[in-house]
Specification:
The structure is a homodimer.
Chain A: H1 13-23, H2 32-45, E1 49-53, H3 56-65, E2 74-78, H4 84-91, E3 95-99, H5 109-119, E4 120-123, E5 126-129, E6 135-142, H6 153-162, E7 165-169, E8 177-178, E9 185-186, E10 193-197, E11 210-214, H7 217-227, H8 250-260, H9 263-281, E12 287-289, E13 296-297, E14 303-307, H10 309-312, H11 316-325, E15 331-332, H12 353-360, E16 361-364, H13 372-383
Parallel strand pairs in A: 2-3, 2-6, 6-7, 7-10
Antiparallel strand pairs in A: 1-11, 4-5, 5-6, 8-9, 8-13, 10-11, 12-14, 14-16, 15-16
Helix pairs in contact in A: 1-8, 2-8, 3-4, 5-6, 9-13
Chain lengths: 387, 387
């Protein structure tokens, strides 16, 4: 039997909730089922406003739109991220500025600060790029694989001072939090606009869905308006701007509500999977499991294997291929976006780590329902170098 | 109890299908459940290629994208349509050219032919707008309220000759067909790209969803690629163009499959509703029910009341307001798009009927489960002028 990378697990209450949708005859968007899911997510992470949308791609697209972009405005984004973070910028006719990652595969906020402090200037309250003379609207902080971008006080203060809005892309890090302060701060609560994913492979799933978490009530209201086709009058169909068909359906919301009730159990199991990988794989010469940064507690969504090829003797590509032969699904870390064909002509700033991280890192099977014997199988293949 | 405009009805098999999704652990996009829904739709309308997408808005957006638009290319669209048909053009950085409607609230193809024959010129195999000098890529033929745009042989031939692609927006007309030829031709089978909606208010629903029907296999393949985030390699995440997260989920597909099996029953009931409205309301001085054009058979999705204010004595607005007071939901025909704020600066060609049609037309309750006594209530309010 195939060992999958990250597949959903159902706990039983999903079907119960789906039955309620049919019973209430409420399967499409808006209505109490969607609101209930939004409320559960808000309560869990401790935020005020949440809007369910069809997926995290649309959450990111709408978040950029809510910054009121003009064509060719710029947004900072890490090179290492799923392409949706970059597409969200391009959909809005804005331009990405690619930044490097730190050793944790996370946007390097030190380097971003350096860029902001040396390569931009302020004009009429906005931040401009010295190189392109274009306005920089925001930064998308992508919390990859469960770990959180180092959103230090200095970074947050600088962005605020320069009027750079922060969009947290927390697609992979729902449930992770910063432990550096007395009160724990959840992913998706620090930025101006914050995006979650409930795609099937995520820590909890709605079977497809996303959410925007807002700090500001007016922005939240505008988000609802734009996500609902911008109807200024729904009897006469007056539209004063171009909106989107982005609301999350009740079917998906109902599954999401079922899953969020199991989040503690899921994270507990995910940590066990992580701990076993770490314990066993870190013993292997040339292999390491990526750990959570000291300043946060991860949801341990996906485990990243870092390969020192010279020491281990096999490359990332060879390992992926060998696993595939054993019916074990792994995948590479994303190919750096500043090198992708549609984006290679956009600005990049001192990118040094991203390419290397891409070449040395892959994702290991980490599903909630990964059996210990299967995990040991994965570990043993690595120990014995597939021999 | 409120009488709704158009709400879904469940037949029992929807829940059965949802259970299968959970049982098969397949609730997200792609996989056999989605393919089965696509197959059922294809078989029903008689087409070769179908791609389930998250909604009809995304179907339209992707259809325009599949015409390979360059910024400022132009697309012809009727002024009277739900805003999504126009937004799909704008999302692609193209410009709409607004055309008028005929007396059936459908794109006036005679006037469109006149526009194409007098206001365009050909250059290197493409059609250009004499006024703007921009390339005209296509025309979106919107089949409103169940009725079909008169896609005459002359119109189809002219578009082909001028290399104008036809996108059928059949969101409201799944199940309707042309009866002018020996073999019945279903809506969404004549255009190069054709869009369906399974929104909750439609003739059948998936609870939110849409579909693109293709004639061309390569275009279909490109559609799948673009709708699936344009992954040229899904292990290494290589993307050679900007794609979308547009695939329809299995949850929604499973509901759609349940509903399509009931389509004959639904259309039969819809025709009964239409016939009763027509019989009773056409007796009232100053009121008429919009009939199907002679060249097609409608699915009778929504019934349109046409008001001669001078004869009837009440305006559309007064009627809507009066119904609202009786807890009966009606809605206006869409406000003409060439007058909407985001679109009012785009080109329009001899629009004369649209505004008048908007002022004189409203949609009457037409749900599958509309009870006869409720329908008679609606009719009697109109007969007695709400007195």
């Amino acid at each position: 039997m195939k060992i999958s990378l990250s597949v959903p697990h159902f706990f039983g209450n999903e079907l119960h909730n789906l039955k309620q949708c049919i019973k209430k005859r409420w399967i499409s968007s808006s209505g109490s089922i969607g609101t209930a899911f939004e409320k559960r997510i808000k309560n869990y992470i401790g935020s005020k406003y949440a809007l369910g949308v069809i997926n995290c791609t649309s959450a990111l697209q709408l978040s950029v739109r809510l910054l009121n972009p003009k064509p060719k405005d710029e947004i900072i984004v890490p090179s290492i991220t799923f392409v949706a973070s970059v597409n969200a910028i391009v959909y809005n006719n804005c331009k990405p500025i690619f930044l490097d990652c730190d050793e944790n595969l996370l946007l390097d906020t030190e380097k971003t600060l350096e860029f902001l402090n040396t390569k931009t200037f302020q004009h009429k309250g906005a931040c401009y790029n010295k190189t392109t003379k274009k306005r920089i609207l925001g930064v998308i902080a992508v919390h990859t694989f469960g770990n959180l971008v180092k959103l230090s006080k200095k970074f947050l203060d600088t962005c605020k001072k320069k009027n750079i809005k922060i969009i947290e892309d927390a697609a992979e890090s729902f449930g992770s939090y910063y432990n550096s302060e007395k009160k724990k701060k959840h992913a998706a609560t620090l930025g101006d606009l914050n995006c979650l994913s409930f795609n099937a492979n995520k820590i909890i799933t709605s079977g497809g869905g996303g959410m925007i978490i807002f700090k500001d009530k007016n922005l939240y209201k505008k988000g609802i308006y734009l996500a609902s086709q911008a109807k200024d009058n729904s009897t006469y169909f007056i539209h004063n701007t171009v909106g989107y068909n982005f609301r999350l359906s009740s079917l998906h919301s109902s599954v999401g509500s079922a899953q969020i009730s199991q989040i503690s159990k899921i994270i507990k199991k995910k940590k066990m999977i992580h701990d076993l990988y770490k314990k066993e794989i870190n013993k292997i010469n040339g292999l390491t499991i990526l750990e959570q940064p000291h300043y946060c507690v991860s949801n341990f969504w996906l485990n990243i294997l870092i390969i020192d090829r010279n020491k281990y003797g096999l490359s990332k590509d060879q390992i992926i291929k060998n696993f595939l032969g054993k019916k074990i699904e792994t995948r590479s870390v994303w190919y750096p976006n500043h090198l992708q064909r549609p984006f290679k002509n956009f600005q990049k700033y001192k990118i040094k780590n991203s390419k290397k991280l891409y070449e040395n890192s892959l994702c290991l099977p980490s599903s909630f329902n990964l059996r210990i014997k299967d995990q040991i199988k994965v570990i043993n293949f690595l120990k014995k170098k597939f021999r």
